[in-house]
Structures
1.
Amino acid sequence: MSTPLIQIKNLHAEVEGHKILKGFNLDINPGEIHAIMGPNGTGKSTLASVIAGKDEYEVTQGEVIFNGQNILELAPEERAAEGIFLAFQYPVEIPGVSNTNFMKAAVNNIREYHGKDPLRAKDFLKLMKEKQELVELKGRLANRSVNEGFSGGEKKRNEIFQMAMLDPKLAILDETDSGLDIDALKIVANGVNQLHTKENSFLVITHYQRLLEYIIPDFVHVMYDGKIVKTGGKELALELEEKGYDWLK
Amino acid sequence: MSVSAPIKNIDFVENILSDSANRTDFQSLRAHGSKGLLTTPFPTLRDEYWKYTRVSGLLKKEFKSSQIANSSISKETIRLTENQTRLVFVNGFLNSNLSVFPTEKGISAHAISTDSDLESKVNSFPTNWENEQEAFTLLNEASFTDGIRIEIAKNQKIESPIFLVHITVGENVAVAQRNFIKLNEGSEATFISVFEGDNNLSFSNHFNSILVDENAKLHWFENHQDGEKANVVGTSIAHQKSNSEISIGAYVFGGKMIRKNFYISVLGQNCETMANGSYILKDQQIADFRVIVDHKAAHCNSNQTFKGVMSDKATGVFNGKIYVRKDSQLINAFQTNRNILLSDDANAYSRPQLEIYADDVKCSHGSTIGQLDEDALFYMMARGIRRTEAEKMLVSAFVADAMDNVNYTAFKELVLENVANKSANF
């Protein structure tokens, strides 16, 4: 039995006194794809933000062990450097910061964290070019400001591009499928599938099973009221699509 | 020289005036200045345009008129000015050894202290804006020690920039410098002023009198990297004739208190006027801008973009004014001041103002005071970018459009480097 890449144990979190996560447990092994589904307001996005380290959430109980280390003590940038990537549900626009400079800072800050020299400009640009092709954003974003004026689809593809650049161990996709037409969905899913190896894992948060037709999960979890209430295989997603969530509450 | 009521208690002004009383040049201008000071008090917080910057403490200090002094130029400035025209002023006196005089055709440059026949040549230069009496301007008139007169000949386009390097050194010096800049019809030139100095207490009072003739283009940029106890009042008054262009960019990083006045009178039609600036401040630094664009003729465009970033207990002030006079129709004039406060004790005061007397114009003004976007910071950190680095990137992005008009790449790079260095140390 392999050691889990991430172990989330009895996680409780709240924001401004509202309890949102209420004893969440999940282990993800290297190479696995897990999907979390569930109705609105059950804490799916909170879970993603807490793992990534957003400080407006207060963790009141539990721990998150990633690669043997309790990451709740780490700053968001340290978690990213350790190999956690969050694809945002609403990618942020950053006017005046070009995609190139943004990614250069990200790649080199992470390299610095691991005691490596910055990537040479030539190698960096080569990497950018290669990864842009993966999500069919070739040559379209380098000099533009991060996400500024991007369509919904472009923003999500940009998230997958960034993921490809940073090559994380665990990628959390927070409703990456929302607002995507079927073509963009296929591009995003195709990007994810190409990046998926035996070592790296995915946690896919979604409302609909549509995305899971393209990204095939090993496990599907249903989240309700701050914790997992049912776990199954990929067929559970289809069942949820048919029956809704009410039978699980 | 006798000095009466309004400045009676200001020892250093008395000192300065008695030092300059022996000078024989510019007697009428100096007399105008010292006479004006008798009836024009130095500003207090009760004055409309000095509401946020207190100078009473400064006026109590024991400053002495500067003497000719020696210094060296900072490495950054040497690098920036390499192979370029460079006029270096140490404590307000032109230093020939450190300077590189222009060789290009069409530029004439003369130190005021050595130009015998100067007075008649500068009669037509502006000395104030709309007869407004300002104590610091009058003090400069009465006491300036040196400066430069630069004239660009008709239709000459000067390719490389002309650097004016201002270095302040020594304890308690008061510097008063006066420059006369004239661009004749159809000419074009870029002036880059660099301010630096040691960390002694000082007070500099600069005055630039600028004439831009028909069809001429003036690009005027400033970088304030003054020493940490430097106090500076700098006033630039420009007159702009028809079809001409003035483009200003003033950037403040150093100094204790930097007050900048830019008063631009647009006298002819079809002019373009751009006045941009930025101030990145920490500790108890103060930068206070008063920027007037006075449209006295029709068919002109003007734009002001000022960006401030303040941390610790620093204070940034923007006092902008656009006048559109009666009959100055078809004016497009815009004014923006945006600020970011990085601490609870930092201050931003923003007063973008319009005064419009014509009816067929398009003018707007706006102002914001806020914080760095926490969502953007988290997004960047979630990609592995350290918070300090992310803040630096956001600050640089925030101020960037206040540098859009800088046409000399090496200077723009220096300014952006200063932004990055300063915001890395917040």
Note: Residues 1-6 of chain B have pLDDT under 50 and may be disordered.
2.
Amino acid sequence: MGKLFAVVVAIIALVSAALFASHIWWLPVDISAHGHAIDRQLSETMVTSGALFVLSQLALAVFAWRYGDRRDGRQVKTFPGGATSMVVFATVLVGAEILALTFVGSKVWAGIYQTPPDPNSLQIDVQSEQFAFYFRYPGPDGKFGATHPELINEASENYFGLDPANDISARDDIVVPTLTIPVNRPISLNLRAKDVGHSFYVPELRIQQDFVPGLAIPLHFTATQTGKHEIVCTQLCGLGHYNMRAYVEVMSQEQFDQWLKDKAAQQ
Amino acid sequence: MQTHYAWIIGTVVLVASAVAAHGGPPASAGTVSGKVTYTGTPPKMKPIDMAKEPNCAKEHATAPVLTENVVTGPGSSLRWVVVYISAGDQGSTPGTETVRLDQKACQYIPHVLVVQPNQPLDIYNNDPHSHNIHPLAKVNPEWNRSQPAGAPPIHTKWELPEFIPVKCNVHPWMHGWHVVLNTSHYAVTGEDGSFSLSGLPPGKYTVTAWQEQFGTQTQDVTISGTESKTVDFVFKARPY
Amino acid sequence: MNPPPTPVATHHHAPPQGFLRKHVFSLDHKVIGKQYLDLALVAVCTGMVLSWLMRLHLAWPETPIPGLEKLSPNGAAGGVITPEYYLSLMTMHGTIMVFFVLTTAPFAGFGNYFLPIQVGAEDMAFPRINMTSFWVTLVAFLVLVAAFFVGDGPPLSGWTAYAPLSAVGKDAGPGQGVGQTLWAVSITLFCVAQLLGALNFITTTLDLRTKGMSLARMPYSTWAWFITSVIGLIAFAVLMPACILLILDRVAGTSFFIPAGLVISDRLQPHAGGSPLLWQHLFWFFGHPEVYIAILPGFGIISHILPVFARKPLLGPRVMIACLVAIAFLSYTVWGHHMFLSGMNPFSATLFSVPTLVITIPATIVTLLWIGTIYGARLRFTTPALFCLGFVSVFVSGGISGFFLAQPSIDTYLHGTYFVVGHFHFVMGVAAMFGIFAATYFWAPKMFGRMMSETLGKWHFWLTFIGVYCVFMPMHYLGLAGNVRRYSAFTDDYLKPMIPLHRFITIAALFTGAAQLIFLFNLIRSRFRGPKAPDNPWEATSLEWSTTSPPPFDNFGGRPPVVERGPNEYGGARGADYLMQAAAAAPVSAR
């Protein structure tokens, strides 16, 4: 029975580890300026914890194999060094790993979330609601119109509660369901929620941030490749949570300028 | 021979009384008809970008759907206006035919439907994905449920007169109206803004026109016989 | 002048009379413990069925499930689960499993039964409060289950019930009407029961130990239950007011968790001044210690059972206890790691990640102590032993994935994905369950006076062990590919390629669920018809094995045991294969 246990555990450990290492299911291509640091942190953690995983499962397996009761009356043996060696091993090895990862990781984190956006960023206002994302560009006047929750009217697609009758700066605001951005340009998003908590997640951009009702949360990044990717909601927000998506379209600066002009003409 | 005649007479009487009992067109009945138009500048109807639902975005790729809160037609006509007898109603018949609401390519078809109290209403989902119907009723009980692709139609009805806005929680641009009226004398204007209410016995009537953005207008009209009276409604439109 | 004798708290009571007093409204901690275990059994069966429905829907969303329409005509018209019903099933699954299984069985169930016996007492310090705790827990369960049958259905905001979704009431959508209020009431009642229970556990451990049972000589399971009660006393004391505030927001028009200006269901909500983050802080300040409440009894149980079947002492018992205390203390400092991306000041993420990573150290030490205990052992591979060894394996798997999530930069990518689901199911849904299984197979002979079938037990172990790896290891791969959690369907372009793996998981889950029927059959049959169990079938040392199987109503027949040594005397160190804690027993020579 012990040998069976050992074999099963060893197979499980090696197969699982192999599937991780083979990258059959893995992160999609990284199209962000900051993402490589996250990917590196993830790979390092994968290697060290993978080693720890395989070693401890194999130790369990080997001991289960070897130390079954063979009714031969032999004495039991204490682990060499006793508990002290375990404490030292765990504290030193795991402790060192923790220190390293924390030190490096906190710099990666700070680089994304604790640095201010580039002053030349393209500013986009984002509103999440049950169950869609809408993106607002300030239009040719460069000013966002004020939002008034009591004026929100979805039937006329006034998702942001703008007041174009009385607010001139609101008249040229461009509201679209697709985050259209130029490549290699810093983007600064302002995340607001209309109703309940939501979240903004683009795996390829290595970016994720919750929307919190009552707060306006900044998020910034730069996309380094053109293409179209999905933005999905990762904060349970109600029945339509699974269907709450938008697309981010990264295009060349020229294409983006043309797109902006076309949209402005439609307002 | 007498038996034969008795059968004929009996059948005629039976049919006539059946017709009378169902309130068929009364002996003398008039009609109110007209057009609903607007003055001023209406808001621009914007094309709806259904990007978040790729199935629907594909369906409208060549001809985008526009918002439907103010739909205009040739000659400054207004579509989707509900015109009905709001006071003095006579000769109404209960609504028994099943009314059908379709959800197709992420739109409510029709945009405005009218039912009478307890008239059966069937809601169908013709799209390959889930919709969520949420009638925002205040007088009737409000409800909110999903209809996955392939689910059976929802059989429902409304009991009390009310103008009920309906939204799809999952597709924010989907909006429509369920109008519950206590009369069978109603019409919903088409592209040309015209309407016709027939089968009105002699009497004094109040006709109301309701447009979802511009509100209601009323006019009184008197029918004395079988004439057709013209009643036009003009709404003042504003761009915002 | 002799000092007055040190009073030893004793607790005498007469044997119970009458059917109701003996079996229903019993004051006997053993009956109450079994009542808790039976409640947890009903709860786990319910929770498991819910998970099958969820997995079936994820794998084949448009296939109708026969009969489901009867339970919920709106939620599953034509047998097809609607998105809201899926989320309701998920919410109830999580709530039932975390509270009524993982907090109830290892702690309230086995703890109630065995803590007094293991310290040599006749009963808990407050038997009436103990009985009240059980009945309040039962009422809490019934209130929760009632949510299935109210008009709008059960809540769909997850077991985490984030505000404002959970706080605004009906406007937030289906399930967020009365169902959510019932949820909050149920949890409030559960907290009350747990606080009362914690009082009992702590008082009994400190005051009712028999002669010779110093704190250092207590079995490790008792230590774990004691430390768990202290954690619970503080944690549940925070969850209870949080749920009350939530109820007030829902029914009394307050705005603790709801800010101004929210438009839900086309209505401007009449609230102002509240903070959704406040709910998250209150909930997770409870929520993180809660997961240690769920696993710590398992640590104690494994530490208690492993030496019995290794026939050697637990390696480093004092280090083990110190680690349990360290984990308990640290558990209060890490709650923000559930909130790295929540909108808190980003600097706090670094602050919270440090203790989260530091907890890895005592967790690693305890794992190494178990592995070190097996080194050089003479293992008897009984069913409880197999579950102990399996526990170590699955705890390693679950703990390692936590290492990723503890780092905010990596959490940026993995938060809200199936990687998290795999992680917490391994540590809670598998490891904690393995602790419960080990405890059941180990203590069933003592509780029911009858042995469970070893053959069926081993079949149960193997099918479950392999099954759970097939169910939960793939979830980590899904998470790495960015598969978002809490989705009722996978309609996004990038998620469609993952559906085959989801189908594999579903099939494995159904298969593993079916294997639990073996356990159920074994448990129920043995309870009434198994071969009679001797007093000490496993040749173990702690006080429960010094009394009959099952014990008499006052545990030791009116003669409280006197303890001469700790529980760790296995392996012939003093010339005997094992030495029981209680004095009167003669040393048994090695075989």
Note: Chain C has three domains: 29-259, 335-528, 530-591.
